[in-house]
Amino acid sequence: MDKKITVEMCEERKTPPSVEDLGFGRTFTDHMFVMDYESERGWFDPRVVPYSPLEIDPAAAFCHYGQTTFEGLKAYRAEDGRVLLFRPDMNAARFNNSNERMCISRMDPEFFVRAVKKTVEVDKNWVPSRPGTSLYIRPFTIATEIYLGLKPSSRYKFVIILSPVAAYYSQGIKPTRIYVETDYVRAIKGGTGMAKTGGNYAGSLKAQSRAAEMGYDEVLWLDGVDREFVEEVGAMNVFFKIDGKIITPSLEGSILPGITRDSVIKILRNWGIKVEERRIKIQEVAEAYQQGSLEEAFGTGTAAIISPIGELKWNEMEMKINGGEAGEVASKLYDYLIGLQTGRREDPYGWTVEV
Ligand code: PLP
Ligand code: COI
């Protein structure tokens, strides 16, 4: 798609907040990207415009039936001032997989990356530079056909918004406390678990709220059939280090194929560390804990980066992992990944893309 992206600049630029007040996802930049779709025309009118509310008809399909998809990636400020994206082609590919699952028209992946780059370029001054901060990029699609019958929409809006962010979890880089959810489930094979779509997250809020009330940061989901196998955490994929080996649940269709997950597996294997992608029972994790061989657990995600897990609570069992401290592998991965993403380290993988 070689369509020209038009740019309408805002009249007055806002002042980006100070890095101390960033948190995650509450402040947005001066501009956003918008593009429309009609089944007779395909995608049309790609434009960067001043950030503003969208005008939505109350009968728009997504308001009722949740036909939406989204992505999450970040732009990082390098020490020399350059702005870098991390594997945006992977987000483009996953976006199309999600779109395919949700019956939303696919988008040319190269155009997706071009739209992201253009939007970030216009608001480049918003990319923070303090370690641990970045500009979070949220592309999403909503079904906008005005119709209450249940069918795939013939109209969509694709939007990209940008938010300067610091750590995802409010406690910063301190290890998280995770509640293993045994009542509610997130996804089953054949469902939408592998797609990045709003309903997966809406359905997870009940368990997450209950865990938060009990003082936990997130839930760890188990498989939707037997509640036996580990799936993923609310906003992250999960890794365990047991007896020197790294184990992460395999992609069986019910968990999100994380881009950080994929990067971490490649980095670890490059370091000569064995990584097993396979189904893993929570019972196996608990037994390893009891035998003293559960050495580390951590989550991986764009928002969460590498997030050490300090505690896992499963039924009556409280597993304090590595004394509640960040483990060696998680810490080393965090440093290395951030180094790559911010251009501080040489990138042997060709993953970073300059804006
Ligand atoms: N799992 C879920 C449910 C997520 O929302 C995310 C975040 O995007 C991830 C895993 C990690 O994916 P990624 O590393 O691509 O951000
Ligand atoms: C991300 O990490 O990009 C996500 O989309 C997770 C979201 C819950 C913040």
Return the average pLDDT rounded to an integer: 95
Please name the fourth-level CATH homologous superfamily of the largest domain: D-amino Acid Aminotransferase, subunit A, domain 2
Helix content range: 10-25%
- Oligomeric category: single chain
Biggest β-sheet description = 9 strands, mixed
**Could you give the order of the helices and strands?**
EEEHEEEHHEEEHHEEEEHEHEEEHE
Strand content: 25-35%
Bound molecules: pyridoxal-5'-phosphate, 2-OXO-4-methylpentanoic acid
Number of strands: 18
CATH topology of the largest domain: D-amino Acid Aminotransferase, Chain A, domain 2
Low-confidence stretches: none
3D architecture notes:
The strands form two sheets. Strands 1, 2, 3, 4, 5, 6, 7, 8 and 18 form a nine-stranded mixed beta sheet that branches. Strands 9, 10, 11, 12, 13, 14, 15, 16 and 17 form a nine-stranded mixed beta sheet that branches. Helix content is 23%, strand content 29%. The radius of gyration is 21 Å and the shape is globular. α2 crosses α3. It folds into two domains: 162 residues, Aminotransferase class 4, branched-chain amino acid transferase, N-terminal domain (D-amino Acid Aminotransferase, Chain A, domain 1, 2-Layer Sandwich), CATH 3.30.470; 166 residues, D-amino Acid Aminotransferase, subunit A, domain 2 (D-amino Acid Aminotransferase, Chain A, domain 2), CATH 3.20.10. With 355 residues, it is α+β, with helices and mostly antiparallel strands. The structure holds pyridoxal-5'-phosphate and 2-OXO-4-methylpentanoic acid (COI). Pyridoxal-5'-phosphate binds next to α6 and β15.
